[in-house]
């Protein structure tokens, strides 16, 4: 019985369910009418028994028709009528249930066909619910289309990311290959030429290593690996990072003293990326921090060309470069700010860009969990 029910489609199940409900309703009504008629029949029979005997004799004279009383005859007619009307109503209910289920299942079958196309790899189809469709179907269509939009966007970003990563890796490899080919054409290259080629190759190899390290870090962040939260002395950590930062000397502004609950390694990665990005495009860089309402805000100011307002949201996209201030020749891979953005989000914070008092760009990030003192 259970296997037969499972084999039925939506139309069959709805039609059968409506039929069962109709049968149960008629059974209840039929039983109630029979009980009431039996009660009335008993009352009438008792009343007739109290009348004079000659009247009773007139009811059943010998030789006259059937001995069935008019009450029993009426009861039989009512039962036949109920059975006839009930059967007709049952057939009509089964047909109506089947048609209703067919109409209700029609958009679901279209949805299933669209889902099959998506499963085959095509993310362009969308569910189309008519304006007159039920609220539940329209809600399902909107939710499904929203999911497809997010998937389409995620896959587009993934394809762009793979393309950009391939281009970034191909550039230094092409440069090294060119240097080696030039050197190989010379029969007796000088020591200076060999040293020059070695220096160029090592520089490109370091660039590849940095890019691979950044890609591996992004992969771990995308896997959802949470930060190793510990109590960190924020001011001391910022001083240490500024002192160890390569390149130009980083100036220290006002630093908020206190403890911050964060991953010290990831927090150091964020600050190093921001300092490195600023130092590539500016002559003066200042690192400072402040605390408001249990939230630590770290700021990196520079006196460089700044970041245009239209670019400030996009600078945190992976491999994004602004034409005015960031290019491949500066040594950046375009992943530093993207990594910083991912780490800050993992800590429940936010990161943004604004104008700097030095005339360049100010990159700020805020992380909760700071305790002054």
Describe the protein's topology.
Elements: H1 2-7, H2 10-50, H3 53-59, H4 70-119, H5 135-185, H6 191-222, E1 230-233, H7 234-244, E2 251-252, E3 258-262, H8 264-281, E4 285-292, E5 295-302, H9 336-346, E6 350-355, E7 361-368, E8 370-372
Parallel strand pairs: 2-4
Antiparallel strand pairs: 1-3, 3-8, 4-5, 5-7, 6-7
Which descriptors would you attach to this protein?
373 residues; alpha+beta; Heat Shock Protein 90; 3 domains; five-stranded mixed sheet; 12% strand
- Compute the number of helices: 9
Structural class based on helices, strands and sheet pairing: alpha+beta
Tertiary shape: elongated
Give the ordered list of helices and strands: HHHHHHEHEEHEEHEEE
What Rg is obtained from the alpha carbons, in whole angstroms? 42 Å
- pLDDT averaged over residues: 78
CATH superfamily of the largest domain: Histidine kinase-like ATPase, C-terminal domain
What's the number of domains? 3
**Beta strand %:** 5-15%
CATH architecture of the largest domain: 2-Layer Sandwich
Explain what you see.
A hairpin with a 2-residue loop joins strand 4 (285-292) and strand 5 (295-302). The protein has 9 helices and 8 strands. The protein is elongated and about 140 Å long. It has helices at 2-7, 10-50, 53-59, 70-119, 135-185, 191-222, 234-244, 264-281, 336-346; strands spanning 230-233, 251-252, 258-262, 285-292, 295-302, 350-355, 361-368, 370-372. Strands 2-4-5-7-6 form a 5-stranded mixed sheet. The protein has a 3-stranded antiparallel sheet with strand order 1-3-8. It has 373 residues and is α+β, with helices and mostly antiparallel strands.
